[in-house]
């Protein structure tokens, strides 16, 4: 808790919707929104809320989601339900909604709540209401413009970064989820206004199968996409030896005016979807290192939008 306290200040905004943990992907599905409620309980019992401004977040509208996603896709998410999905057979296939990304009661409402929290965090950062914004429900980094992917329906990170770009000339996105941040990389692959850095498991057909070190961006975005593919079983010491020089060089070179962090919990050891051997102390160390190093040149605001520390973004939904 000392490490987390170091990061937080009285200008940290924490967004929590008391109903976001009530949604259910279905029996046996590894994505567990209920864990968001458990995480909030820890925030309360450890007294971390005393170090933050706490907000019940705004709900994102269809218009907000269409800042990145196609209108047809968002319209489908708004209309489909377990009761009528038989009438959407073609759309289910078109938009990749099925086993990994099931239709469940309140699907669009769930997307509206976690996306709204991330978007509100970005807005507060833009207007200098806070220096750090936290949304534990966010960080659904696999969603694409036209389809769902990897438990993710609406890419709140991309939508929030688009909001940040209204005020910030350079946004750095860092992803430490065990899965490659493919949706965010794809969205900004052709621009130098967003630099994406992802540390992830790669190889042996591990989902999503992207994130090779030779994926570096294209056109104006060439060399503004950095992937650090990792093998099974990486431990704390090895991870830190990689993370520190990479992030130092990236921050010194790019000099971002805002940083978005997707802090996926599935990179921790013993996670049922993961294969790394990292401890929570390394996740905390990563945050402290970035916060400290950022201060050495200009103290850029940090958007923790989770699966967030999402801008910080965290992925606490998946069960361990």
From TrEMBL:
<feature type="domain" description="Histone deacetylase">
    <location>
        <begin position="29"/>
        <end position="286"/>
    </location>
</feature>
<keyword id="KW-0378">Hydrolase</keyword>
<comment type="similarity">
    <text>Belongs to the histone deacetylase family. HD type 1 subfamily.</text>
</comment>
<keyword id="KW-0156">Chromatin regulator</keyword>
<dbReference type="GO" id="GO:0046872">
    <property type="term" value="F:metal ion binding"/>
</dbReference>
<dbReference type="InterPro" id="IPR023696">
    <property type="entry name" value="Ureohydrolase_dom_sf"/>
</dbReference>
<dbReference type="InterPro" id="IPR023801">
    <property type="entry name" value="His_deacetylse_dom"/>
</dbReference>
<protein>
    <recommendedName>
        <fullName>Histone deacetylase 3</fullName>
        <ecNumber>3.5.1.98</ecNumber>
    </recommendedName>
</protein>
<keyword id="KW-0804">Transcription</keyword>
<dbReference type="Pfam" id="PF00850">
    <property type="entry name" value="Hist_deacetyl"/>
</dbReference>
<feature type="binding site">
    <location>
        <position position="177"/>
    </location>
    <ligand>
        <name>a divalent metal cation</name>
    </ligand>
</feature>
<dbReference type="InterPro" id="IPR037138">
    <property type="entry name" value="His_deacetylse_dom_sf"/>
</dbReference>
<feature type="binding site">
    <location>
        <position position="266"/>
    </location>
    <ligand>
        <name>a divalent metal cation</name>
    </ligand>
</feature>
<dbReference type="GO" id="GO:0141221">
    <property type="term" value="F:histone deacetylase activity, hydrolytic mechanism"/>
</dbReference>
<dbReference type="InterPro" id="IPR000286">
    <property type="entry name" value="HDACs"/>
</dbReference>
<keyword id="KW-0479">Metal-binding</keyword>
<feature type="active site" description="Proton acceptor">
    <location>
        <position position="142"/>
    </location>
</feature>
<feature type="binding site">
    <location>
        <position position="179"/>
    </location>
    <ligand>
        <name>a divalent metal cation</name>
    </ligand>
</feature>
<dbReference type="GO" id="GO:0040029">
    <property type="term" value="P:epigenetic regulation of gene expression"/>
</dbReference>
<dbReference type="GO" id="GO:0005634">
    <property type="term" value="C:nucleus"/>
</dbReference>
<keyword id="KW-0805">Transcription regulation</keyword>
<dbReference type="InterPro" id="IPR003084">
    <property type="entry name" value="HDAC_I/II"/>
</dbReference>
<keyword id="KW-0678">Repressor</keyword>
<keyword id="KW-0539">Nucleus</keyword>
